[in-house]
TrEMBL record:
This is Phytocyanin domain-containing protein. The chain crosses the membrane at residues 160-182. It comes from the Eukaryota. Residues 127-149 are annotated as: Disordered. InterPro entries: BlueCu_1_BS, Cupredoxin, Phytocyanin-like, Phytocyanin_dom. GO terms for molecular function: electron transfer activity; metal ion binding.
Amino acid sequence: MKITLHLMNNLFFILIIILSTINQIKSEEYTVGDDYGWNTGFDYFEWSQKYNFSVGDILVFNYVQGQHNTYEVTEDTYRSCNSSTGILQMYDSGNDKVSLTEAKKYWFICNIPDHCRGGMKFGIEVKQGSSNPGSTPQPPPPPPTQGSNNGYKIVQINGMVAWTLLAIFGIWFFELDFLIYCKII
Ligand SMILES: [Cu+2]
């Protein structure tokens, strides 16, 4: 019996190691424009200032396919909104997932005529990930209207669930071990 419990304690520590590893490789998904999506009439500069982006994170551009698109461009093209040069990547699925794989400045525009000039443009600085959810400077945006999935919130909840589980399992195993130990002696 005691051997089994020691095995369980070992499993508990293995669980800790696995969970902390998951914590380190997690990536966050950010929906551009949050609930508003990728569309005209929204301040994407303001949106881009709300989060700290790290390598491994993913940007999701949601829009009606054909009405917009997502171009990753150079800084010059971002500033001029002239896409005759400086296009790095093009997406047009309506649900574009852009992985931020490098620590650098990323620049995005919509290349439908006049949309870039109209404000469908933003730049972000992606930093080498410390993946620390506590470093997000501002609280999450207004209450979600419909099943919004804000990456920041998901990661926070994941973290909370993980630590709660750890606490429950930890107390449970150690208490069991202690009780059995007392009865045996
Ligand atoms: Cu557009």
